Amino acid sequence: MAEGSMRDGLPEGLASVTGFQLSKCGWWLEQRLEEELKPLGIRVRHFLVLAMLSTSETLSQQEMAGYLLLDPTLMVGLIDDLETRGLCERTRDPRDRRRHSVRITEDGRDLHDRARALADEVGADVFGPLSSDELRTVVKAMGRVMEPFWAEQMIRPRRKR
Amino acid sequence: MAEGSMRDGLPEGLASVTGFQLSKCGWWLEQRLEEELKPLGIRVRHFLVLAMLSTSETLSQQEMAGYLLLDPTLMVGLIDDLETRGLCERTRDPRDRRRHSVRITEDGRDLHDRARALADEVGADVFGPLSSDELRTVVKAMGRVMEPFWAEQMIRPRRKR
DNA sequence: TATTGTTATACTCTATAACTATA
DNA sequence: TATAGTTATAGAGTATAACAATA
């Protein structure tokens, strides 16, 4: 029996924690998308890699680990998964032969397009209660908030957990 | 070497995934707070429990698990931690003796106040780039977006991972 | 000497199943 | 028979450390 004051369906004291609802919203979005992507045989992280590669000629595994906040060792298996299915390909970077230049393939682009359509559906559903003006404001706000984070992240990477 | 088009310090294809920045913003907030709370000897989840209890007479462990999206078995140790430090107390609910009525103590309230001050600092720092108008819009938007989630959650609980 | 990618291993965290007591 | 809470265990996921190739 939830007594005490409530707000937005939550105990007031919890709803008033700055960022709590935002954190859970992020979690909800990810869970929803994880479910939607199952029929495609990929996880959210696979989709995010394809999303990065879709607008970049090539990226190194370290760069991608930095953007996804994943430990670089996890990128190995992740790219393995995609390469095995012919969704991306690794070549040695001729300018620095330690690096792998990862590039998306045509099949990868096709799967990316399908996955993005699903991601857009989830986004439209979750953010449904917002007017397009409000959604635009939120998206732009997140970009401004996270800009200093990414700038710092690309210099001194932090990882998950 | 990040080639291709960029937006907000990210590859365009990644920045344009609906909710990606929002998810990472939630993660960043949590990491920052986790660090700030270490001197108090608690984790974010402990703070969130105290936050709930601060505005509710009593709550059951199941209710709290539902709000925090944690498996109920995890609440046991969580409440143990707080009770051992005298921050909350368990009593049997006289109307349903299976339930534990969890209540915050005076010491718990004190620690909660200190933790919330830190949470507010983190929030002010992370959301610093936003005007107060924008921040208000974002917070209100999150409340509206998550309302149907909490309504559903309290009926058919889903857990993490 | 430092960095990218790789592999194997250890660790952390969480979920699962089984149990007690209450309903 | 179902539910709240508890416990121990198994499983998933992640980070750590060591290595090869290259800078």
UniProtKB/TrEMBL annotation, chains A, B:
<keyword id="KW-0805">Transcription regulation</keyword>
<dbReference type="InterPro" id="IPR039422">
    <property type="entry name" value="MarR/SlyA-like"/>
</dbReference>
<keyword id="KW-0238">DNA-binding</keyword>
<dbReference type="InterPro" id="IPR036388">
    <property type="entry name" value="WH-like_DNA-bd_sf"/>
</dbReference>
<dbReference type="Pfam" id="PF01047">
    <property type="entry name" value="MarR"/>
</dbReference>
<dbReference type="InterPro" id="IPR000835">
    <property type="entry name" value="HTH_MarR-typ"/>
</dbReference>
<protein>
    <submittedName>
        <fullName>MarR family transcriptional regulator</fullName>
    </submittedName>
</protein>
<feature type="domain" description="HTH marR-type">
    <location>
        <begin position="1"/>
        <end position="147"/>
    </location>
</feature>
<keyword id="KW-0804">Transcription</keyword>
<dbReference type="InterPro" id="IPR036390">
    <property type="entry name" value="WH_DNA-bd_sf"/>
</dbReference>
